[in-house]
Amino acid sequence: MPSAFFYIFAAITLFFGVGVVVLRNPVASAMSLVGCFAGVAALFISLDAYFIGTLQILVYAGAVMVLFLFILMLLDIKAEAGKHTSFGMAAAGIFLALAFALQVATVLSKFTEGGRPLAATPLQLNVAAAKSAAGHGLPTITNDLKAGTLPDAKLMGEVLFQSYPFHLQIVALLLLAGTVGVVVLSKRDRGEKEEAP
Amino acid sequence: MITLNHYLFVAGLLFAIGLAGVVARRNILVIYMCLEMMLTGANLTLVAFSRFNLHDGLPDYSAQALVFFTITVAAAEVAVGLAIIVALFRTKQSVDVESVTKLQG
Lengths: 197, 105
Hints:
The complex is a heterodimer. By secondary structure, chain A is an all-alpha fold. Chain A is 72% helix and 0% strand. Chain A has helices at residues 3-22, 26-46, 50-75, 87-110, 125-134, 139-146, 152-162, 165-186. By secondary structure, chain B is an all-alpha fold. Chain B has a single domain, classed as Helix Hairpins. Chain B has helices spanning 4-24, 28-52, 61-92. In chain B, helix 1 (4-24) packs antiparallel against helix 2 and helix 2 (28-52) packs antiparallel against helix 3 (61-92).
């Protein structure tokens, strides 16, 4: 991947990320967050994580943000008109962000292992194909690797269902519990009067 | 020349922007969006480390499985959190964090 793409997508991500924080209208913030997530998805794909990148678009930029916009429009929230963010809080936020960024930069400057370029660590699909053919690899994965393509979703599925099947079921249970919790939370009590519209 | 540090720094900046938003903003929904942004920053670090830690010439898919679980848990968390915010809005008619000070001593 040319370096220019990394800088473009990183710039998109951070630009829209700043937009979420500084825009006064919550709907504009939400739309900005969609752009930020799209940029992150592009960065995921630049890291050969096609499945995770797709998931980022589908789940975050799609489902989660639709939920946010739905709630924003349901509650009919206007921009924080007249109520300015207090100067102290804004200053504290900027100071914390700068301190954190400085900390990250300091740590990374000492992290020599991180200086390895992406181009110097290419995927070795032939090595993986040989390993997969010699070992327990699934035939479909081995064939894809031999053909020189990265079967990203297949490899994700193999890891999820062979190494983490129990965790997957726990997560399914968590989603069920979340769904039930949402229904319980949004249900009105029987004694509660219907509000006038 | 893009290195691992480039990705880690972008992820760190994304986390820092989210942190600034959580501290500075007063709208609960926007604070929630900033929290999502911080989670995404953490996910970006995981994927970057996964790509640079090759096992048999392939990325470390255990890290990507962790990202998968994080995204799932975050989705469940958003659903429950938004339900709580709606319930809060029903009683307070406001989404300002300063309208919720009942536990303040």
